[in-house]
Amino acid sequence: MRQLGFICAAAFVALKENVAKLEGDHKKAKVLAEGLNQIKGLRVNVAAVETNIIFFDIVEGSKITAEKLYKKLEEHGVLVMLEGPLRMRIVLHHQISSSDVLYTLSCFQ
């Protein structure tokens, strides 16, 4: 690999500047997971949320489908990933603020 220096430089910056931010990302993910779990029709295994990734399910028999919820959230600038007909995923990163988490929760309600 003749361009290994560029890859190493990116890895160095990531380790030096972003690892410290991971703890905050994980805390925000936990707050979001707890908030989502309080919303009727959604189910989150909050205990399983240990990183910046949240998986949640739409309870069977709910009035909304994952695809409809996906489109509604997208209209509000909240991007999620469909994992199945009733399962979705949200990933937080260091540029997501606490107010972004609250905004996201408001979009679900």
TrEMBL record:
Q: Name the Gene3D superfamilies on file.
A: Aspartate Aminotransferase, domain 1
Recite the UniProt keywords alphabetically: Lyase, Pyridoxal phosphate
Listed GO molecular functions?
A: L-allo-threonine aldolase activity
Entries under InterPro entries matching the protein: ArAA_b-elim_lyase/Thr_aldolase (IPR001597), PyrdxlP-dep_Trfase (IPR015424), PyrdxlP-dep_Trfase_small (IPR015422)
Give GO terms for biological process: glycine biosynthetic process; L-threonine catabolic process
Pfam families recorded for this chain?
A: Beta_elim_lyase
Q: Which GO terms describe its cellular component?
A: cytosol
Annotated Aromatic amino acid beta-eliminating lyase/threonine aldolase domain residues: 1-57
Q: Which cofactor does it need?
A: pyridoxal 5'-phosphate
The record's family statement is: Belongs to the threonine aldolase family.
**Name recorded for this polypeptide:** Aromatic amino acid beta-eliminating lyase/threonine aldolase domain-containing protein
- Organism name: Gossypium aridum
